[in-house]
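quick q for whoever's on today - can somebody do inverse folding on this one?? i tried earlier but teh output was garbage lol. tokens:
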């Protein structure tokens, strides 16, 4: 979930609208980690995620006057970021990826006693690769809701705000995303992943 700005967000955004680069820099510092991690989850490439999140901040600064007074920054910014990511995916036809890298803090790790058992580590790495490959095969809207809920730990209401939809729509998309993910994993592993 995005960190909160140190000062009052509305006053910082007012300064941004007047062209203050310093004010916008505080906005970037607040949201850059979340922006990168969301982009990484959506496009699956560290380099592309860095480039796309930087481009999203550039476009946000250039168009900050279009952010209506009183609106929160992140839901507006998120639309810029997601549109860039989905456009990138369409252009490069990355509907299916062979492997998505780890999202920071979301690694499958071995239990302390298993650290030196190569077969346990190999099994967990294989499971992690299968899960990320399956996430890469989901539709854009399903991949997006999985990333926001399970890897960014956003509550349903915040996801709904970011996607400009109802919480019921978020819950429905999440249900179908999980169902599709389970089906993909069962197909990939011959039915071994029945616990999703």
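ok took a stab at it. sequence:
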């Amino acid at each position: 979930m995005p960190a909160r700005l140190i000062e009052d967000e509305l006053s910082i955004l007012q300064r941004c609208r007047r062209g203050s680069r310093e004010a916008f820099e505080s906005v970037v510092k607040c949201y850059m980690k979340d922006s990168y991690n969301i982009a990484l989850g959506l496009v699956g490439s560290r380099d592309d995620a860095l480039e796309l999140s930087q481009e999203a901040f550039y476009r946000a600064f250039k168009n900050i006057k279009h952010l209506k007074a009183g609106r929160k920054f992140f839901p507006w910014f998120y639309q810029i970021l997601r549109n860039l990511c989905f456009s990138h995916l369409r252009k490069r036809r990355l509907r299916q990826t062979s492997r998505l890298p780890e999202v920071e803090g979301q690694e499958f790790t071995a239990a302390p006693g298993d650290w030196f058992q190569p077969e346990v580590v190999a099994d967990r790495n294989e499971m992690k690769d299968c899960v990320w490959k399956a996430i890469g095969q989901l539709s854009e809207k399903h991949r997006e809701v999985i990333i926001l809920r399970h890897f960014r730990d956003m509550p349903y209401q915040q996801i709904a705000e970011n996607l400009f939809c109802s919480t019921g729509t978020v819950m429905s998309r999440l249900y179908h995303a999980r169902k599709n993910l389970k089906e993909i994993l069962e197909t990939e592993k011959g039915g071994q992943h029945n616990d999703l």
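fwiw The helical segments are 9-17, 21-43, 46-62, 73-92, 118-137, 140-151, 156-163, 167-188. also Residues 97-196 form a domain with the Arc Repressor Mutant, subunit A fold (CATH 1.10.10.10). so keep that in mind when u check it
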